[in-house]
């Protein structure tokens, strides 16, 4: 994707003050957190499923739109419909592996679309297939996690630890951050913020254990907190690298103070599979 590589993030747009940004984030959290807790713990299962599919679809649409604005023709409709099918297949009788294979084959065939200016359009096909794997497939693990024993508790712990850790990284990084964590990828992320995220992730896992998940051993809570604190930051950096490659700051403006849906769930895309794999294969 030579056309979009190495594009600097625009710096001429006025940035909101730290106080205004914090206020927007706080208000969004006050609205979204109770709704999310109800969706996981109190709503019918189909509401949870519909929410996961909707979130994945919005994230997919934002991702392809981000590349399209950078001048890369992306098969957005195919990505949206195919990606939605892939995420929904985790909860449907159809095998998610078969659904993903079918959608992937169809996406590969998109390269046969009439060439533009005499060039085979491999970039659009690649971005579309990547988006389906990155957003829709990874978020589908939320269904598998919800279906496990104590699945509600695991989902709530996953999101609580991830979001509190990210909030700590933002607050500490903004106020005390002095050492850049990955300046070429995300100049505003700091070592101090990363350390705060790791510590708060462990504390949040311990709070979750005491609040609603007493069956989780103390050592397990610490281990899960550490794992989510590290892996979530990797997921955040991956999305930052994607945005940096096409010169944008946020994938959208859907959630005040947070950016787009993909900005809100980037860490969850990595953390959800990790928690599931930990429970299935590493947990004693």
Structure description:
This protein is mainly alpha-helical and 284 residues long. Helix content is 70%, strand content 3%. It is built from ten helices and two strands; from the N terminus they run H-H-H-H-H-H-H-E-E-H-H-H. The chain has helices at residues 18-41, 45-69, 76-89, 96-109, 122-139, 141-147, 151-176, 191-211, 218-246, 261-282, and strands spanning 180-182, 186-190. The chain has a two-stranded antiparallel sheet with strand order 1-2. Strand 1 (180-182) and strand 2 form a beta hairpin. The protein is globular, with a radius of gyration of 19 Å. The N and C termini lie far apart (44 Å).
In order across it, which strands form the biggest sheet? Answer: 1-2
Class based on secondary structure composition and strand pairing: mainly alpha
Shape: globular
* Overall strand count: 2
Stretches where pLDDT falls below 50 for ≥5 residues? 1-15
Biggest beta sheet summary: 2 strands, antiparallel
Q: Strand content of the residues, in percent?
A: under 5%
């Amino acid at each position: 994707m030579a056309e979009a590589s190495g594009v600097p993030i625009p710096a001429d747009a006025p940035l909101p003050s730290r106080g205004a940004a914090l206020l927007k984030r706080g208000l969004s959290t006050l609205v979204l957190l109770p709704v999310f807790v109800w969706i996981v713990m109190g709503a019918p299962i189909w509401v949870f499923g519909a929410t996961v599919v909707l979130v994945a679809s919005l994230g997919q649409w934002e991702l392809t739109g981000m590349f399209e604005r950078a001048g890369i023709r992306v098969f957005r409709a195919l990505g949206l419909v195919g990606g939605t099918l892939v995420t929904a297949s985790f909860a449907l009788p159809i095998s998610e592996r078969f659904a993903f294979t079918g959608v992937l084959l169809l996406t590969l065939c998109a390269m046969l679309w009439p060439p533009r200016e005499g060039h085979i359009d491999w970039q659009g096909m690649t971005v579309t297939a990547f988006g389906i794997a990155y957003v829709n497939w990874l978020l589908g693990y939320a269904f598998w996690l919800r279906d496990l024993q104590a699945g509600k508790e695991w989902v709530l712990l996953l999101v609580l630890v991830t979001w509190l850790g990210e909030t700590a990284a933002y607050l500490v990084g903004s106020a005390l951050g002095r050492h850049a964590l990955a300046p070429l990828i995300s100049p505003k992320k700091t070592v101090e913020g990363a350390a705060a995220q790791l510590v708060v992730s462990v504390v949040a896992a311990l709070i979750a254990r005491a609040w609603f998940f007493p069956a989780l051993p103390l050592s397990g809570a610490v281990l899960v907190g550490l794992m989510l604190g590290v892996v979530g930051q990797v997921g955040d950096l991956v999305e930052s690298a994607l945005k940096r490659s096409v010169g944008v700051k946020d994938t959208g403006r859907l959630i005040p103070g947070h950016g787009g849906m993909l900005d809100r769930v980037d860490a969850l895309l990595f953390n959800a599979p990790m928690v599931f794999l930990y429970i299935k294969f590493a947990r004693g």
